[in-house]
Amino acid sequence: MVASRKQQKALTRQRLMDAVAAELASGRSFDTLSLREAAKLAGIAPTSFYRHFHHMEDLGLALLEEHGKSLFALMENVRGQVTDGRSLIRASVEAVYDFIFTNQGLSRMIVQESLSPESPFRDASENLFLAISSDLAEYLEQEARKRGVPLAYPRLAANAMVSIMFTTGIALLNAPEVDRDRHVDAAVIKVKMIVRGAESLAAK
């Protein structure tokens, strides 16, 4: 079956995004990539780039949005498969780290851009972190109500958990493979401590 023009355009757009994401995974920084290079990586003419994105910043924002959607889908899947709270923490940490390793170029980009005062993607990166934290806070509150356990400062707890998972995950990309399990275990303990702390504060 021959793809329609609209389908072909969507496929080419995705190929362009995938090609740039693969280049980022090799260690390349997004701000060093030119429009011409991005087009070449995807096997299209530079003029064809404008059929899909207005400029490189537009492409970068699309990559961040896609990355965020994939991460949200991943966490929804993990929550749907694990019911025990303690097991969920480990499953969530491991899933996030696997995601970071699989998408390390974009994961680095999100963390780096969120910290850069002059980045055109800073707002998008920060908004993604806020959305993830907000979603996690809501989930923590729901789970606390189900278990009949009081929970203080769920948003602060969620912010701290997301920060730990992402910053540790990015650091793990440069760590020797033999040390990764130890770092994952440490992150799981930190996240559990945050949850226990929020519960203890609520009980006072």
Describe this protein's structure:
The chain is mostly helical and 204 residues long. 77% of the residues lie in helices and 0% in strands. The chain is built from nine helices and no strands. Helix 4 packs parallel to helix 7 and helix 5 crosses helix 8. The chain is elongated, with a radius of gyration of 19 Å.
Topology (SSEs and partners):
Blueprint: H1 5-25, H2 35-42, H3 46-49, H4 56-81, H5 85-102, H6 104-115, H7 122-147, H8 154-172, H9 180-203
Helix pairs in contact: 1-2, 1-6, 4-5, 4-7, 5-6, 5-8, 5-9, 6-7, 7-8, 8-9
Order of helices and strands: HHHHHHHHH
SS content category: mainly alpha
CATH architecture name of the largest domain: Orthogonal Bundle
**CATH superfamily grouping of the largest domain:** Tetracycline Repressor, domain 2
Report the CATH C-level class of the largest domain: Mainly Alpha
End-to-end span in angstroms?
66 Å
Helix content: over 70%
**Number of strand segments:** 0
- Outline the low-pLDDT stretches: none
User: What is the domain total for the residues?
Assistant: 2
Indicate the radius of gyration in whole angstroms.
19 Å
Compute the number of helices: 9
Strand residues, percent: under 5%
> What is the overall silhouette?
elongated
Nearest-integer average pLDDT? 87
Could you please say which CATH topology of the largest domain applies here? Tetracycline Repressor, domain 2
